[in-house]
Amino acid sequence: MGVSFHTTLIALAALLGMEVFAWFAHKYIMHGWGWGWHQSHHQRHNRLLEKNDLYVVVFSLVVVGLFALGAARWPVLMPIATGITLYGVLYSLFHDGLVHRRWPLRWQPKSGYLRRLILAHRIHHAVHTREGAVSFGFLWAENPEKLKLRLLENHPRHGQKTSQPGSS
Length: 168
Ligand SMILES: [Zn+2]
Ligand SMILES: [Zn+2]
Fold this sequence. Notes:
By secondary structure, this protein is an all-alpha fold. The chain has one domain (5-42, 50-158). Helix content is 60%, strand content 0%. Helix 4 packs across helix 5 and helix 5 (112-124) runs parallel beside helix 6. It starts with a helix and ends in a 14-residue tail after the last helix. Bound molecules: zinc ion (2 copies). One zinc ion is lined by residues 26, 30-31, 38, 42, 124, 133.
């Protein structure tokens, strides 16, 4: 299957669709019944890996499965799997690299959308509990000022160092 306008569009749609999917998965799975793995990503530590990385492993396996099915039977799955892979690359660069500094990148954007993305995700990490977090996107970020206000609504006492587990 050659790269045509059509397949490129499908790949782009899959990439964008992944951000929507990731937003929902982050809010309702990772901060829901999947908190057991995600919790490790909301705690300070100096280990190299987090239990949360298991999500990346699971998604990678799904993508490998999509490529295999695409090659064997349904060619339309190829651009979809390609779009999801591209999303994974961007996620890794922005979330793991720029925000959490897991890549040896020196560059730190001082302005513009990437700066906003970093600030928004830091605000997501202001909360160390399952409930009450804001900003669940990885490539899409709301205005940080708005997010801060929403965080204060969720945690009226936030900033006064109240971190009893389970209090919300
Ligand atoms: Zn989270
Ligand atoms: Zn994070």
